[in-house]
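Continuing the batch. This is chain 6 of the set; chains 1 through 5 are on the previous pages. Same settings as before, nothing changed between runs. Recording input and output for traceability.
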Amino acid sequence: MSVFHDYARYYNLLYRGKDYAGEAAFVFDMLKERARPPRTLLDLGCGTGRHAVEMARKGVSVTGVDMSETMLELGRESMANFAKEAFPASVPELRRGDARTVRFGRKFDAVVSLFHVMSYQNTEEDALAELITAREHLEPGGLFLFDFWHGPGVLRDLPECRERIFEDGDTRVRRVATPELRATENVVVVNYAMSITDRKSGRTTELREAHSMRYWFLPELRHLAKQAGLRVVDAGGWGWRNVRLALTTGMHGCLHHYEEKKHRCRHRQSSTGRRGKFSVYPGHAGCRGGA
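Output for chain 6:
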């Protein structure tokens, strides 16, 4: 799971077009509807803190955790540009740590792990460890929401080589993503080859990095959630997406996942959405939920 080395320096450029505000609004509304409006939130695998910023702007006190110090530094630098008034509760706190093992000795109203951090957990042991981390930090009745690569979507719409161009005033990045399906492991290894050009000097450097992504199936995650002492009860769409599944196991909670069709890339921008949204409560009689 050791990724995002030099790649991390270009993360905000690579995902500049991602709708962090819209995703945070959806997450906040779902937390508010399914549990209670969160006052405190733990963001496991926070990256450069883009979701954390949007949640903090809604008055939530956010603690973000990530393994990449480079990404955390980028996030702190970005947050320094905001006025204090932008964060009604507090500026997000970004701390280095591993989602599988970090312990703060305190509870949060909600825990999230967004942009398929769970798929970076390539083994059942690693995924279970992150689930236990979430449980250890949740207040009774709190909600853990995460997304993941959804197995049926991956296998129905197999990954293909993609190329994209990203640029701003200083940098131009050409990124080629070449996937390698390891079906016996339920893993896709995405091999990134990047050509990075500094616009001022004209110098181009090459960067290669491999990201190993586990695609998960709902029965696996239900089983792991139960092992972690978490209960899953319903499934539904991500925003306007097109897949919804409702489950109940005796306590209220919610499980959300979606699949998004892939657009093939031929030397232009594309996306591959095979993600799921998954939310779990610790067993608590006072939770709200339902399909």
